[in-house]
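Title: Comparing notes on inverse folding

I've been comparing how different people in this forum approach sequence design from structure. To keep things fair, I'm posting one structure and asking everyone to reply with a full sequence. Here's the target:
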């Protein structure tokens, strides 16, 4: 087989492989934002991205595609945090947990995010946590003063 024919075959392989590699790179680069259903125009979007990047390994929250919580008590790991689909948090609770390493202080690192990032996550979780929580009817009770 002549040398130029082998070179042509090698170039043909490269010509086929390059577009394939480019497609793979584009697909993989798109994975970073996959799963976030908060609109990019939302004031909570940055908090969603920060939550996904720093918290999704231990917490579950569908709006960012995070599945870090245990689904069964028998499968639970020490690092499984609360499932925020069902657990509602307010801004102050989230800020406390961020600064103090959760509420027990056993696993979550203190100050996992800082400054404006902490505030962005707290605002985001206050808005989006507990969306699948069961709504329990309440009854007002008037206490007797006798």
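Reply #1:
Here's my take.
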């Amino acid at each position: 087989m002549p040398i130029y024919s082998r070179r042509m075959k090698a170039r043909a392989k490269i010509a086929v492989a390059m577009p394939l590699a480019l497609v793979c790179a584009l697909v993989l680069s798109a994975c970073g934002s996959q799963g976030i259903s908060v609109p990019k125009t939302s004031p909570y979007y940055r908090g969603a991205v920060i939550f996904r990047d720093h918290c999704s390994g231990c917490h579950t929250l569908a709006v960012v595609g995070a599945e870090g919580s245990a689904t069964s008590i028998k499968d639970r790991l020490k690092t499984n945090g609360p499932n925020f689909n069902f657990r509602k948090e307010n801004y102050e609770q989230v800020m406390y947990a961020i600064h103090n390493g959760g509420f027990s202080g056993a696993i979550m690192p203190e100050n996992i995010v800082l400054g404006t990032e902490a505030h962005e996550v707290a605002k985001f979780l206050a808005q989006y946590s507990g969306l699948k929580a069961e709504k329990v009817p309440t009854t007002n009770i008037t206490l007797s003063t006798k």
